[in-house]
Specification:
- It is a single chain.
- With 172 residues, this protein is of the alpha+beta class.
- It has a domain of 100 residues: Nuclear Transport Factor 2, Chain: A.
- 31% of the residues lie in helices and 23% in strands.
């Protein structure tokens, strides 16, 4: 090497000690008050109670998803008609399993096994009225003639996976 090359060459950096990187130090949290922990747990209540709306608030649906829902009035009439036929023994109850909750299905199943009589005429829907309770729930009243007498049915439909599902069904 030449003398000029040695003069322009940079000196080697001084050896450095290895650095140890530690996570940032956080303040220790105080232990929670046992009374506050008990109050934070949700209260278990029946879904059928009117207080359930306040205990488990449903997020508001955007208008685009609300318009995508089908009209609940024909479904309310069809479910009541199928339920009356199933209670009369002219339709299998399993056909309703998609449109009702398991609790409603169990109630219909218990009622169908105790009153398995067949009617001469096919039931017909006389009228249907639907009232919107919230963006995700409607209540309906259906008048049905089952061949022997005229009955009234009340039901509540709620949105379940972008479809209507019967959560409460009372047939008089």
């Amino acid at each position: 090497m030449t003398a000029t090359a040695l003069a322009t060459r940079r000196p080697a950096p001084a050896p450095t000690r290895p650095r140890l990187l530690l996570p940032p130090v956080t303040e220790p949290r105080p232990l929670p008050d046992p009374h506050e922990v008990l109050l934070r747990h949700p209260v278990t209540r029946s879904v059928l109670l009117p207080a359930a709306e306040a205990d488990w608030p449903v997020p508001p649906a955007d208008p685009a998803s609300r318009s995508a829902l089908p009209d609940p009035e024909p479904l309310a009439g069809a479910v009541v008609l199928a339920a009356v036929e199933a209670l009369g023994g002219s339709r299998p109850l399993v056909q309703l399993s998609r449109w009702v909750t398991p609790a409603v299905f169990e109630q219909l199943n218990a009622r169908a096994t105790t009153a398995a009589t067949t009617h001469r005429r096919r039931p017909t829907i006389r009228s249907t009225r639907v009232a919107r309770v919230s963006a995700t729930a409607v209540e309906a009243c259906v008048v049905v003639h089952d061949g022997e007498r005229v009955r009234a049915a009340a039901l509540r439909l709620q949105v379940h996976r972008r479809h209507w599902r019967v959560t409460v069904l009372q047939i008089g």
